[in-house]
Amino acid sequence: MLPCRYMHGTKADKLYDSTQLLDVKAQLDLGECGMQEVSFYHQHKNNVDFVFVDHPVYHRPGELVINSCIN
């Protein structure tokens, strides 16, 4: 499954209007890119729990995958 980027300010907003930022962060060791912090969002909808991961790569312009690290 490929990562998907939610773009705030679009018609998708109504799909995620009940999403809550969790008070949970994780440090991931990404090798050459070092330790990276991610945070998590949760949404419960139609008896399904959705968990979304937030990382700085999602907030920059352009592609999700590039050859340089996020610092």
Topology:
Elements: E1 20-29, E2 35-45, E3 48-54
Antiparallel strand pairs: 1-2, 2-3
Coarse shape: flat
Quick check: average pLDDT?
Answer: 79
Helix content: under 10%
The largest sheet has its strands arranged as 1-2-3
Note the beta-strand portion: 35-45%
Question: How does this model look, in words?
Answer:
- With 71 residues, this protein is mainly beta.
- The protein has strands spanning 20-29, 35-45, 48-54.
- It has a three-stranded antiparallel β-sheet with strand order 1-2-3, with no helix packed on it.
- The radius of gyration is 14 Å and the shape is flat.
- 0% of the residues are buried.
What labels describe this entry?
mainly beta, 3 strands
Summarize the structure.
By secondary structure, this protein is an all-beta fold. Helices cover 0% and strands 39% of the residues.
